Amino acid sequence: MMIRTSDLTIEATPPSPPKTDVDDNENHGKHINYTHESTSTVEGHDEKKQQFSIMIENCFAKFWGLITYTPKRCRYDPESPPKFSMALNLLFAFACTFTVANLYYSHPILNILAAEFNVSNERASIIPTVMQAGYAAGLLFICPLGDIYKRRGFVLILVFCTATMWLGLCLTNSFPVFVGISFLAALTTVTPQLMLPLVGDLAPPDRRATCLAIVSSGLLLGLLIARLLSGILTQYTTWRTIYWFSFSLQYLLFTLLYLFMPDYPSTNPGSFNYLSHLHSILHLFLTQPLLIQASLIGLTTSTLFTTYWTTLTFLLSSPPYSLPPLPISLFSLLGILTLLLSPLYSHLIIDKFVPLFSSILGLLYCLIGICIGTFTADLTIAGPILQAIFLDIGINTCMIANRCAVYAIDAKMRNRINTVYMGWVFVGQLVGTAVGNTLFARYGWRGSGGVGLGFVALGLLCAVVRGPWEKGWMGWGGGWGVRRKDFGGEGELEEVVVERVVDELRDEEMGEGGKKTNGVDIGEKQKEKDM
């Protein structure tokens, strides 16, 4: 077999020149340059992120320092602690009034909000419900921190957050956004519940009930005046006017507190265990009979309050009265007048008698008012008017007396004690609203009044099963006396306990071990007062 070479075509690829060390070095250099450029880009990006993070931290630190800065006249001096003056008492009351009012501006204008956001009245009614839920969450999860941090900085931050978030309510046109911001704003609207225990810490024992009455009156005044202002301003302008009004008031409150609120020391300096603080709330609930008794009385009286004020609108807007919204809102003035008298009553009665005696008197006032209003409302409008007056006097008396009682349990746990007490009060408000509206719809005004009588009876039962000097859960051990016992008498020396707490706080600031205050032994101070 023969193969002709002419039939074969061979294409030869010219051989590539051999690689030299120079070529390898050039290629390696290109790879190194590429890798170096990539690494430089990543490092530059990380460096920019780090610089931005540092800038944000610095800005936040400066802002935080500005918010928490304490003017010289407000700084705490253990040698000369600031006195709890009447001016400061009124400032706290003013702050409580227009802070708690944030929760109630929407109540009389829900139909207008429904039209503004193009939703049903039923869906618009979720706004106050969400705000109450936010307030309850703040009461449970934020207020206990008042036993850890200094109250001045804590209060200022909460007021600033509330005011800033309130701007969103003034501007938004979205209903879901409005509801969400309402929850967040209510979450930080718990500053009154930080101020009330602070008043219990600072007020002199012989004036504690009077000072608490002034601040507590501001709390209830905010609830009443919010409905009045909201109804009047919305009737003659737009609904946003009341929200802009509240926005400006929040920053006014922040400015006043920033300039005049003293920087009191923490009651538990250096101890921060949030979970243990929450656990201690449950422990208080299970181990303190006085706290449970006062909380149950607070539950019944708050139920009476919401039952009356939520059903009063239905009574006055229907025959035989058929009143328009503005005269109905003016009923709030009745509560305002009675609240202004509560400090005088507290000075004459609550400061001189045991708190339980004042609580029973308050429940009896409520009983008289409900009996008058329930059975005479069909005959004359004077019945509901008298009921409002007696209810406001009775409820406010019970609230002040209950706070005086529970704040004497443990001075270092007053914010957590207040959380337990106000938690029950909040439950009572929800129960009163739901039960009162349901019974009024089925049985009319006398139906809602009848359940009020039942709650008064429950409150009186809680009051009489445990005497003012009893140490256990039930009974009247320690006697039947209702006057407060002076030093050297039976019972607990509450004034000495409070002075001891103040002395310990002062000594912690001075680093002296907590045994003496300015060289004076606590036992010597007690002996001097006994003499």
Q: How is this structure best described in words?
A:
- It is a multi-pass membrane protein.
- Residues 1-44, 508-531 are annotated as: Disordered.
- It is found in: Membrane.
- The chain crosses the membrane at residues 86-105, 125-146, 153-169, 175-199, 211-230, 242-260, 281-309, 321-341, 353-375, 381-401, 421-441, 447-465.
- It holds the Pfam family MFS_1.
- A hairpin with a 2-residue loop joins strand 1 and strand 2 (520-521).
- Helix 12 (289-317) runs antiparallel to helix 18 (445-464).
- The protein has 531 residues and is mostly helical.
- It has helices at 21-68, 86-100, 110-117, 121-124, 126-141, 151-171, 175-187, 191-202, 208-236, 239-260, 274-287, 289-317, 325-329, 332-350, 355-376, 382-406, 414-443, 445-464, 494-510, 522-530, and strands at 516-517, 520-521.
- The chain starts with 20 loop residues before the first helix and ends with a helix.
- The protein is built from 20 helices and 2 strands.
- The longest helix is centred in the N-terminal third of the chain and has 48 residues, at 21-68.
- Strands 1-2 form a two-stranded antiparallel ribbon.
- It is globular, with a radius of gyration of 33 Å.
- The chain folds into 3 domains: 85-272, Up-down Bundle (Growth Hormone, Chain: A); 276-470, Growth Hormone, Chain: A (Up-down Bundle), CATH 1.20.1250; 494-530, no CATH class.
